[in-house]
Predict the 3D structure of the following.
Amino acid sequence: MTEIENETGMTDAECEYWDEFISKNPVKLGPDLVKHGIKPGFARYYLPLNELDLDVIEYIRKQAEVSHKSQIQIINDLVREKLVISVSH
């Protein structure tokens, strides 16, 4: 085994492949979670809401904070309200 294989568990060819891949494909950063009120270390408690509009994300986050519910509970409540309205018509 080479020194690289001992240190990384990968062959020289695999190391070269990943070195080239990472060099040519820069990491795309997501949204600044702290800017959205999510404290470091707490991201796992939040839904990945990056597909929603920012104002919708902020509304869900604030409602969850005020009501002491999770974001998924807020979304469930909103959808249930819509279901009740649609069934009653």
